[in-house]
């Protein structure tokens, strides 16, 4: 398993041992303890930091330490090499938001850390008077249930259980929590409107959220002014309750919501390996060959991906990324600060972009590889097996 990172690196979030911006993918293969980084099963990019999970359940983080988002303790220093978060073991999934992160263990329990504004009062903390919670803390609310996954957005969190129930809490701006208002909710609260469905995936963006059900339906909530909710050009208001998105009969398997405050957009992956996009087309980040916005789900032509099935998607702030069944990685949108990973973007800080998905040629080219991608606002990562 190999991890590659690229893009803006000022806070060490690329995990390469320095704080430099990188325009082409580089292998992140060393830990702060000098060990080789092996058997990685997940990589997740957050706000100026990155987390990885290994096959043996270890969690490592790198990047900006402010507000305790790395989970490494009270220090707010930047960490440019992946460092072990040793507060707990047996991690099976991690999610990184803007200022906080959370993980699910193999036992189905949730731990959370980072900015207290995002964590709410879902935990008890001894760091009274501090805005940060630098050590992962157990979310006791879920002690009696088994959690399947967690999704961290900008100052809010979603959790879904093995039975398909979904909960959210944190800042409620734009109605992103899906509880009928834009009020903050400090403790995990069940989304009753989705109780008749089995939820299998959630992605929490900066200002909107997408929830996928077992039967392939997609529900959205949050900021509507950019068209990122896919409700049509006449429906650009905020949505406070989970609302079905018309995906033209496609069975949705996963969703990715943009990580930027402005120019919101959404990517959705169908069971057949087709990608749908909608929202603000700023800098060509919808991948449709122009910078126009789309207000309902629109398929990206398969030929843009060499007619291969798409297997992984990730929406950054002003760029997007995807991986195909052959292990190829594609990026598109704004190319400033190296976030697209294309060599010819170097030296074109603000003008470089791609309006269509473009293969990242600097990555391993091997038909036996499978790949997944993760994008935050400033940087991108790919995981190969």
Automatic annotation (TrEMBL):
UniProt key word Repeat: yes
Record has Repeat as a keyword:
yes
What residue spans do the RCC repeats cover? 1-56, 57-107, 108-163, 164-215, 273-326, 327-385
Keyword set for this entry? Repeat
Please name the Pfam families in this protein's record. Answer: WD40_RLD
Give start and end of each RCC1-like domain: 3-382
Bilayer-spanning residue ranges: none
* The protein's name in its UniProt record: RCC1-like domain-containing protein
What's the source species for this entry?
Lymnaea stagnalis
């Amino acid at each position: 398993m190999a991890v590659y990172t690229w893009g803006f690196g000022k806070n060490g979030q690329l995990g390469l041992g320095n704080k430099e911006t990188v325009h082409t993918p580089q292998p992140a293969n060393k830990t702060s303890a000098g060990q080789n980084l092996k058997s990685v099963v997940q990589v997740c990019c957050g706000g100026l930091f990155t987390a990885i999970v290994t096959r043996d359940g270890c969690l490592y983080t790198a990047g900006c330490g402010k507000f305790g988002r790395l989970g490494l303790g009270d220090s707010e220093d930047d960490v440019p090499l992946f460092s072990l978060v040793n507060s707990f073991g047996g991690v099976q999934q991690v999610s990184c938001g803007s200022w906080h992160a959370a993980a699910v263990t193999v036992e189905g329990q949730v731990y959370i850390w980072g900015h207290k504004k995002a964590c709410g009062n879902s935990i008890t903390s001894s760091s009274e008077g501090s805005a940060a919670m630098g050590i992962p803390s157990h979310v006791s609310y879920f002690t009696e249930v088994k959690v399947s996954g967690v999704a961290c957005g900008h100052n809010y969190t979603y959790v879904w259980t093995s039975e398909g129930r979904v909960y959210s809490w944190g800042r409620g701006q734009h109605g992103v929590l899906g509880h009928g208002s834009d009020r903050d909710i400090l403790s995990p609260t069940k989304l009753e409107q989705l109780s008749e469905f089995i939820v299998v995936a959630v992605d929490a963006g900066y200002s909107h959220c997408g929830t996928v059900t077992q039967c392939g339906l997609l529900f959205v909530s949050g900021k509507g002014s950019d068209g990122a909710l896919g409700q049509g050009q006449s429906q650009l208001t905020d949505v406070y309750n989970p609302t079905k998105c018309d995906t033209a009969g496609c069975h949705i398997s996963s969703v990715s919501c943009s990580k930027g405050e402005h120019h919101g957009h959404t990517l959705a992956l169908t069971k057949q390996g087709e990608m749908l996009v909608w929202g603000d087309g700023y800098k060509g980040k919808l991948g449709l060959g122009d910078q126009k916005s789309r207000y309902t789900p629109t398929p990206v032509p398969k030929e843009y991906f060499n007619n291969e099935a798409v297997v992984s998607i990730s929406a950054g702030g002003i760029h997007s990324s995807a991986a195909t069944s052959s292990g190829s990685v594609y990026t598109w949108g704004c190319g400033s600060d190296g976030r697209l990973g294309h060599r010819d973007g170097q030296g074109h800080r603000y003008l470089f972009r791609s309006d269509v998905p473009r293969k990242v040629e600097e990555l391993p080219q091997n038909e036996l590889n499978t790949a997944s991608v993760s994008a935050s606002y400033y940087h991108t990562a790919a995981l190969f097996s």
